[in-house]
Amino acid sequence: MKLITNIYQLLVTGEYDKPLCGKEMGAMPYIENAYLVIDEDCIYEYGIMDDLHPIAVDEVIDATGQIVLPMWCDSHTHLVFATTREDEFVDRIKGLSYQEIAAKGGGILNSARKLQAMSEDELYKDALERLSQCIKTGTGAIEIKTGYGLTVASELKMLRVIKRLSTAVDIPVKATLLAAHAIPERHKQNRAAYIDEIVNEMIPAFTKESLVDFIDIFCETGYFTVAEMDTIVNAGKAHGLKPKVHVNQFTSIGGIQKAIELEALTVDHLEELTEKDIDELKTSNTIPVALPGCSFFLNIPYTPARKIIDSGLSLAVATDYNPGSSPSSSMNFIVSQACINLKMTPAEAIVAATINGAFAMDVAKETGSITKGKKANLIITKPLPSYNAIPYHFGQHQIDEVIVNGEVL
Ligand code: NIG
Ligand code: FE
After folding, report:
1. Which ligand is nearest to the CA of 143?
2. Which atom of ligand 1 is the closest one to the Cα of 76?
3. Which InterPro entries is this protein grouped with (predicted)?
4. CA nearest 345: which of 378, 305, 296?
5. Whose CA is nearest to atom 7 of ligand 1?
6. Which residues line ligand 1 (CB under 6 A)?
7. What's the rounded Cα separation, in Å, for the pair 46 and 29?
8. What domains sit in the chain, N to C, each tagged with a CATH number?
9. Which of 80, 234, 266, 278 has minimal Cβ neighbours within 10 Å of its Cβ?
10. 124 marked as binding residue
11. N- to C-terminal Cα separation, the chain
12. pTM for this structure?
């Protein structure tokens, strides 16, 4: 057993059976002057210091002046990729758009060509290094998508890498099939053939091997249509996969309505969001997910988080870590971005990056809050004047120690 004493602020405490919505987010539950007991890999109990009774423990960590919070839950990443794309970054600085770069063979197809040429072992080695860095900087649960394979063999290679990552690290790792990320060159003249490959080959084979948790699609002008989302998501659902979908990144084409109808767990991006989209989200349990790193890097509008939260909806934030539109895995930076660019309060941003992120990838039973019985995946910050200082110091994480499964990293 381990005991953490004198915790200045212990954040996101209590029981959660659904993501926090609207005003609940700003009223993030927390307690001051707290203790927390860890038994093996789990949170055993916590409370205010005044209530701390004598307890036999192996180790005491004095957290005077420090803040303790659940590790970040990054519910949207493309962490398995071949190489970075800084040439495209320079092209964009010189004036080309993300779509123009894609149209001349860059973008997702560029990443796919490179990934197809790489061995599973090489991919795994690089991805494990990235994932270890995520954990060191406070990410305690992560979702990882395929989508740079675009062939049966290469999508399978990506899923195998994700499976190996999930057994190599001590945090929950969820796998999402995003074969519908771009139409590969070989099917440009016959997109139906690719949809058919996803539906009739990939989904049945990959789910049979239990390699996938979620089904995703990039529903966007120039990528996949709403009708294709219907086909692919229904095929995934028939094999037990919950939908988590990319919608409204550049255009609003009805993807949100379809995702709601398909009972998607999340709709991610939402940089282009209409009043009608918001009204429809209010009728559903689908969780909106904002990816401010992508808006920052591509210089596109930010998701209207204020409108979403003020409408009483829930919101999660995630990195979208990928080589094309968001090459950073820092949830610390995302929480700062949520405050600075999405106009969320620090409490709302922390909730969006912890418990709401956990719900956005179905790991809320295990992690995402300070709750008895959940995994002891914790961040201990440096001494800080208040939790507001966590996002305030943008680009400089305030982590002193990370505890993963009850062990100090
Ligand atoms: O979520 N929008 C689609 N997919 C990624 C970008 C992928 C890439 O450019 O490699 C995203 O932003
Ligand atoms: Fe993405």
Report:
1. 2
2. 1
3. Amidohydro-rel (IPR006680), HutI (IPR005920), Metal-dep_hydrolase_composite (IPR011059), Metal_Hydrolase (IPR032466)
4. 305
5. 324
6. 78, 107-108, 111, 218, 246, 249, 294, 320, 322-325
7. 13
8. 2-70+369-408 (2.30.40.10), 73-359 (3.20.20.140)
9. 234
10. no
11. 16
12. 0.98
